[in-house]
């Protein structure tokens, strides 16, 4: 039996890896390629999510995202104690990844960015929330179908979830950064002290994830396992 501490450690490691790759790939594209090449970022993020699902999925469920954890909590799939410990571990993992990245990449090579998610100049605060909410709705709905609901879960869940992350970033990466994950945005923001429009990346993903969870359970019901 895997205990709650072990699950939280897995979430820390998984989120560390996710944010290191997500923020690092943005840094590489800005610093070394001289432009924000969205395809490379989307590919890197999709792959690390896929690998996380297959590596720690059997330990913690590989949430690596407070929006996912919250969505599972409100549908009775997570106990409050584990929900809190998961989210704390996710935020710590994201922060640790960005601290490491700030030392890994010299300032003159771009660590001033640290993969920070920001709104494009034409995207308003409300529009940013809507975009992040829609992207996260798609992600969480997919997670419920292929990983949470025991009736429809599949061994290809990691590939499918990673593909959704890839496509979401392709569609909206240039608009909001396509975070879909408060921890993904919190890490760079905390390390850099860059809090502009930060609430977009909490309100949007949490709202979108919760709506997806309620929608799925309301329409299809749910047969899962409580953690």
TrEMBL record:
Cite the GO molecular-function annotations of the record: water channel activity
Domain of life (superkingdom): Archaea
Q: Per the UniProt record, which residue ranges are transmembrane? A: 12-32, 38-56, 84-105, 125-147, 159-179, 199-222
Q: Is Nucleus included in the keywords of this UniProt record?
A: no
Q: Which InterPro entries does the annotation name?
A: Aquaporin-like, Aquaporin_transptr, MIP
Topology of the protein relative to the lipid bilayer: Multi-pass membrane protein
Can you say what this protein is called? Answer: Aquaporin Z
Record organism? Methanococcoides methylutens MM1
**Lineage, opening ranks:** Archaea, Methanobacteriati, Methanobacteriota, Stenosarchaea group, Methanomicrobia
């Amino acid at each position: 039996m895997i205990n709650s501490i072990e699950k939280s450690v897995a979430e820390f490691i998984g989120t560390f890896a996710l944010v290191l790759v997500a923020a690092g790939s943005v840094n590489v594209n800005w610093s070394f390629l001289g432009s924000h090449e969205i395809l490379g970022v989307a590919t890197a993020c999709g792959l690390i999510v896929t690998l996380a699902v297959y590596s720690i999925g059997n330990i913690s469920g590989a949430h690596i995202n407070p929006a996912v954890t919250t969505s599972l909590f409100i549908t009775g799939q997570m106990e409050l104690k584990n929900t809190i410990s998961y989210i704390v571990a996710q935020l710590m993992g994201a922060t640790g990844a960005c601290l490491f990245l700030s030392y890994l990449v010299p300032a003159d090579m771009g660590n001033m960015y640290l993969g920070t998610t920001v709104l494009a100049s034409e995207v308003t605060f409300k529009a940013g929330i809507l975009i992040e909410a829609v992207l996260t709705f798609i992600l969480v709905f997919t997670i419920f179908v292929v990983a949470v609901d025991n009736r429809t879960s599949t061994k290809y869940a990691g590939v499918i979830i990673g593909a959704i992350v890839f496509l979401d970033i392709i569609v909206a990466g240039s608009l909001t950064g396509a975070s879909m994950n408060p921890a993904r945005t919190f890490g760079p923001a905390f390390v850099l002290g860059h809090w502009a429009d930060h609430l977009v990346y909490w309100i949007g993903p949490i709202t979108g994830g919760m709506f997806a969870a309620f929608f799925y359970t309301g329409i299809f019901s749910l047969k899962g396992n409580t953690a």
